[in-house]
Amino acid sequence: MSTILECKNLTKRYGNFAALDQINLSLEGGHIVGLLGPNGSGKTTLIKIINGLLTPTSGEITVHGKPIGVESKKVISYLPDHTYLNKNMKIRDIISYFEDFYSDFDTKRAYDMLAKLSINPCDKLKTMSKGTKEKVHLILVMSRHADLYVLDEPIAGVDPAARDYILNTILSNYDENATILISTHLITDIENILDQVIFIHNGHIRLSSTVEEIRKENGKSVDALFREVFKC
Amino acid sequence: MLGKLFKHEFKDTAKVLLPLNLALIGVTIIGMIVLGLKIFDSENIAMGFLAISMVFFYILAIIALFIITYIYLMIRFYRTMYADEAYLTHTLPVSTFSTFNVKLLVSAFWAFLTMALTAVSVLSLFGTALQSTGEFASADWNYFLYELETFFGKPMSALIGKFLLYMLVSCFSGLLMIYCSISIGQLFNKYKVVASIITYVIIYIVLQIINLILNIHRSMQLMTNSMYYSYQSAYDDVSIIGDIFGSSLIQGAILIVIYYITCVYISGKKLNLT
Fold first, then answer.
1. Domain match, B102 and B166 both
2. Partner B, chain A 64-83, Cβ-Cβ below 8 Å
3. Which of A72, A103, B104, B173 has its CA 20 to 30 A from that of B223?
4. Where in the sequence is the domain holding B158, given as residue range(s)?
C-alpha cells in the first residue's frame, strides 16, 4: 500500500506551549487507525493541520506526497468534532453543496442513508436533535469516495445505539484502499474495528503500532494499554 | 469551481440582502405614489406632521438598511472564514485566494447595490416631491444641471462617473477594512473578536489622524473662504473639494491594496482555527 499521509518533524506552538512537538508519522492506505490520547494531548491539533485549518509552526506534512492544499482537500473527507454546517440550511441544500464541490461525492448513497434513518432531506439542520445532526454529518462525510477519512471524536456525546450506527456506517461505507483516521478517547467502543493505533500525549507520539502487535507483545487490549500508559 | 463558489455565495447572501433591497424599492415606489397624490401641499398641520414623520422614518430605514447590510456581511465573513462554518469553507478543494475573492466581490456587489439603490431612491423621491409642489419644472431641472456642469467645469457624465468611482472605492475599502480587522484578530490565540474590534478602532483612529494631517491646509482654506464669501471663493472651494475628493480616491485605492494583501496572507498562510 502507498503512503497517504506523512508528517516529518511536525510542530505546532501556541506561544511557548507546544501542542505538537516534532511529530513523525506515516499512514498507509487500507487501514483504520485510532488516534488515541487524553483530552488536550494534541489529537485535534494534528487533525486540523492535516485538513489545512491550522498552519504548522515548523515541519512538513504531505498527502500523497503533496503539501496540504487544494489537491489534498480533494482526497480527504473530514468530520470535525462539532457542528460546522449552516444550521439554517436544509439537508438537501447541503447535499447539493457537497455535490457541487466534491467530485467524489455519492449523492445516491447520501439519500439512501438518510432514507434508512427516516431523515427528511427537506428538514433544516437546526430542527434536528444533537444525535440526528451527528448522523447527518457522518452521512455527508462517508458519502464521499475519499482516500483518507479523518473523523474527530465521531462517537463522543451520543448514546450507545447511535454509536453502533456510526461505527457500522463507517465500516460499511469506506473503500478498502482508503484509510480512516479516528480520533477518540472512547477506546472500548472502537477497539474492535481498529487495525492500527497511535497514542499521542502532550504533543508527542508515545506509541504507533498495529492492534495485533499490541495484543501479542503486551498481552493486553488497546484499552488496557491506554489506561496503563496514560495513568494519572 | 469559481462559478460554483459565486453561485453559493450569491444564493446564501441573497436570502437576507435581496428582501432588504426589494423593501427599499417598495418603499420608494410607495413614497413616489404618496407624494404624487399631492396630499402634502395643503397647509394642514396634521398632514405636515405626517409628511415630516414619513421623511424621518424614511431616513431611519435607510440608515437601518446600511447598518444591517454591513453587519450581516461582517458576521457572515467571520462565521464562514474564521468560526464554525470555516471548517467547511477551508476544507473545500478550492484555494483560499479564490474563496476570499468570491466573498469580497459578492459582498462589494451587495454594498454597491445598496448604495446605488439608496441614491436612486433619494433622487426619485426628491424629484417627485419637487414636481408635486409644482415649484420645479423640467426646464428648471435642465438649468440646474447646466449650472452644476458650469460650476464644476465638467460634463454631467464625468461627474456621475467620478461619483460612481468614489462609491466603488468606498465599498471595497469599507468592506476590506472590516475584513482586515477580523483577519488580524484571528492571529490572537484568545479573545479573537475583541482583538478584531480593537484592530478596527486602531485602524480607524490612525486613518483619521492621517486624514487630518493631509487635509489640514485645505480645511483651513475652506474655513477662511467661508468667512469671506465671494463668487471667486466659491470656485476656490470647488477646487479644494476636488483636491480632497481626488486624494481620498488615491488613499482609498492604496488602502484597498494594503487590506487585500493582509487578508489574503492571513487567510492563506496564517489560518488559525482554534
1. no
2. 69-71, 73-74, 76, 78, 80, 82-83
3. B173
4. 137-274
